[in-house]
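Quick one: structure tokens for this chain, please?
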Amino acid sequence: MKWTDAQQSAIDAPRPGQLPSQTILVSAAAGSGKTAVLVERMIQRLKRRELSIQELMVVTFTKAAAAEMKARIGVKLAEEFQATGDTYLEEQLNMLPSAHISTLHSFCQWVIRSYFYKLDIDPSFTIGNEGELALMRYDVLDAILLQVYEQGLYNIYDVSDMFSTERSDQILRETVFQIYNFALAQSQPMRWLDQVCHTYESALHQTLLETTWGTLFWKEQQRQIEYLLERYEEAQRLATLGNGFDKWMDKVSELQTLLQAMQKADTWDAMHVGVVGIGGFSFPVLRATKAMNESDPAILSEIKAILAEGKEILQAMPKGVFAITEADWREQMEYLVPLVRGIIQLVKRFHEDFQQAKQEAGMIDFSDLEHLCLALLVDPEFTEELKPSEVALELQDTFKEVMVDEYQDTNGVQEAIVNLVSRGDNRFYVGDVKQSIYGFRMADPQLFMEKYHRFDHDVNSVERRIDLSQNFRSHEAILNVTNFIFSQIMTDEGAGLTYGEAEALHTGRIVEEAPPEWVGGDVEVHVLCCDEDKAQTDPEDGEDLENDEKEMLFVIRKIQELKNNGAMVQDKDGTFRLMEWRDIVLLKRSISGSASRMIDLLRREGIPAYAEEKSGYFSAMEVQFVLSLLQIIDNPEQDLPMAIVLQSPLIGMDANDLGRLRLSVGENSLWSGLRPFVEASQNAGWIRFVDSMDTWRTMSRRQGITDLIWHIYDTLHVVEYVSAMPNGLVRRGNVLALYERAKQYENGNYRGLFRFLRFIESLQASGEDLSVAKTVSEADNVVRIMTIHKSKGLEFPVVFLMGTQKGFNKMDLNRSLLLHKEYGVGLKGYFPDLRVMYNSLPWIFVHQALEENLKAEEERILYVALTRPKDKLYITGYMKGSINGSTDRPATKKMGEWVAPVLQWGESAFTKEQILGCNSYLDWILRSLARHVAGGTQLRQFAEVESPQLPDIPYKDCPVSFHVHDGNDYSVSQETPSVEVDILEQVRAQLPVEAPPLDPVVIDRLTSVYAYESSTERAGKISVSEIKRRFVELEELAKQMIEPDYRTDPHNSNIEGESGTPDRSELLIVDSSKDLDSSVEDMLIGDSIPDACTDDTELTGEQGMENGTEKAKEKGAEDISEEASVDLGPFDVSLSSMNESTPICSGARWGTLMHEVMQWLPLQSYTRPSLRQALDSLALQGYLTDEERKAISEKRICDFFQSDLGQRLLTAQRVERELPFSMLFPANRVYPEMLDGEDLFLQGIIDTAFLEEGSWVLVDYKTDHLDEKALVERYRIQLMLYKEALERLTPYPVKEVYIYSFRLERAIPV
């Protein structure tokens, strides 16, 4: 593979510099091949023997990424070994499974298990599942709150008054959990909590300008004042170039005077006075005079834009933080400090008790993994800073390089762990801060940003940055449009990073000789204008579903157009092929609540689709029914769940029945009068339900939840019923998933129906949900619907980015308590007498910081979305309002008003206010697109801005097109399929209805017969031992079918007739077994094996074993005792393969033990003493137990090594022991009924093979009680298969095959 210069630098670093090692930050843009670079760097360092695979620590973001990386490394090492034959690479390949390539959680778990003795932790700890830990959290907090309420600790009554409703203190519980989880994402959680308290408490002794909040508010205020003064100065300059602007400029001069006075303010109250003055200012009406209109239209347009922008900023000031005086703020703080102190103390108490509860239960959670690992790595003597401990120093010596993939998604704890196990010059970070989109998982992109700005490109710098900006995934048009948008909206002020040339995407993919059907081309932006004047976002109901459907139908028409036109896509090898459904993905910011409808619309049009939803499970009707039933089993006095169950189709009461039941019980519960009511109704189904309730309530107290749920399913036929409903496969999967989740719950430390229901309620209360059951996988040929987060790391030929008009979700910013890593806690103010909250200054400060972070992350999410497509990108959305002006404010006018301000802005990048003022992806896209040379023409017409400014924006000629559509052209059809009336009448009368003729294709599919039906009854994989066993058992079964062994006479194994001569059937046994033996053997080994000599006196396997046992006892060999057999008369026809035992005293176990010894013993000449010493050494190393060591026959093993065959083995040029093999071979060699062309996957292990004069000698060890002929007869097939496999596996022939019998102490040629 040819690498770019930047990629090669990342692979070779620190070469060609002079430093022996470096810490490197690889800023890898989307599609730049960062994983390939990471793998190649490891391979090259291994090839140069600079380190071993065990001296590498590689941290990935997910387990799947770790597994993929290991697989890539394994393939690369294998290729390099095949090419070079370097044994060092072979060693690295063998050590790869134990390499430290994992998620950070897995690494932490390894560290804890390795050094558990340094922690106060049970070494057999388990990682608790989320359900179990959630219940434990609630139990611990309940116990704490009970005690706290009783003793009045932690200012609990004021805290509870603020964070509770009239009905419960659930909000208080959620707030405690929120702070606790956030604190654990910090490297020093308790210190962070203490710092929060300190910030509030110290504010009581500071002026407002001395606080963190006041300092940053003041800085932002001064920035805005300076910006406005510059803009007004520009307006004054422009006014001199035109006529009639005097009155406007007088007002501008007044504003300049006010702003200059505010600029000179040196106290908070002085600034407050200035802001109050601004609030009383009378802004001019921007109505142009005749003289102004006679001036240059561009001057008028720009002056109006400056004055409109200034008015908007200034009018917001009196509503901002400077509207309050310092005295007001101090009064706020005096009330807030006790509240903050109380809730922080409550969180710290919860942390202590929760840790204790987990320790007693012997479990930890994922956050414990990180913090316990950190406790091992930090020197406890240093509390103010993180100094490495002895464990950390030991790990620093172990790892020569520490690599972190997806570095932009790490948090403070993970950063600390990486730093402690590495040095300052051996870290290798890979990531892209523009793709940091996991803020909800506490990812901190500032860690990446700090290094991004601090590291330089110097090849000899200890801390070096390498940029990979070449994208090998997407077509050039997509990259240029992405660059065009982000060069305007991503700035240091607005997103923490300026999108310049170093951050831009450069094409590394070349499309040559594309056919006219190729799907690639311009990036298309489509906006639908919808008449319905409904909010684009609704906190409760979500988006306007009707408009969503219009957008979806537009996308469907586009997909159909592509398919009908024979659209083609390009594969990685450069070839073109017809587009398939799987090549298309529909991306949305969120698919919650809309995915099911999208799938229905797609399937209605014949387009297969798949979406993996992470919610909707608890709202499914069938799940609600089962949970309601479990609730009334636990407590039948609950009327609401009782009514849900009774009115369900499985019970069958209607509204009238429920009404009569309610009248019959009066004020009592429905359950109290249910039995008399159903008995009076004489409804057998209802009576059966009430009887079952008694059974289920008893089961709930005596048996597990899983038994109860399955009994319910069985009694009410729940699975069968929901399977017959519409979307039955999903419903069936949902009820079965509830059973499986109950089983997982019972695997933990909790039991009982009440706790299970409480666990489900806690999940629902915290907003957590589960995904509905899957019926289609993303591996199928379907259109995929997924969130942008889910698409990260993936690529698709055709992408539709939908729902771009959806407003950003700011619900979390409206909480009464906000959390920030750097600024701590922002708590709203509270009037306890009125029970009303207000926005306190600390809350406003944290809210603004979080909103800026949210907008910055949304920019990065948009970047991820735009970099997923390979060939084609469509961007769609809708705006409320008509397209033709039929409403007061048509959508086109709204678009024009929205983009107008940026059309008078002369810089390439937007201002901070212009960026943060956007509340959807479509806002950013429209504003950016309005300044595009060709693509923005229509938007500029909507804006009606004369002489718009089009600065020199990078990529402003990129291939993008903008289209506006009438949403009414994409309405959902409400027609229902017509059904003939006479057919309905026949159905109502329960008369037979003549079925319409089926399509011949359908008939052919339904009546087709699988040609290989016999194969479905056979395993596709088989071992050599199974083949041997099948041969032996067929022989024995044939004998038993003809003449069972009655064993009536212990002294005579044959049954004789009255004349004393052998029964005629005995001769048939011999003949039949020989025929079967011969036929099976011929099938398996064909003509390659000469015919075996047999005679009628040959012992059966069972007889041979008995006689062998007697001989062994006579010789004084080991006593291999047999269990006494039970005489079952004519019914004793069990096969010998089923009569196996596992103790060492059994023949089978002793045989296995001898095989293991022959595998582990070093190959050398032995005397009895030296052999005894070697066996003792194996026992000391743990290969053998004491019992096994005593059972080994030293004499038999020594005799083998001293035999002619053993001596040949010791002098062989190559020896293979316990050599595994796999191969395909014809199935009809084992199963004659199977057709030609069908193969079995054969597996086996060859005991020993040694190479002698270019040919193999194959040896198989046996311990059976059989003579030579019987051994050869029994194992001949097995050994011939071994021979065939060895010759296939290697280029050498097999010249000799031996059975070495440890019983007979001799080698037997086969």
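The CA atoms of residues 317 and 922 lie 28 Å apart.
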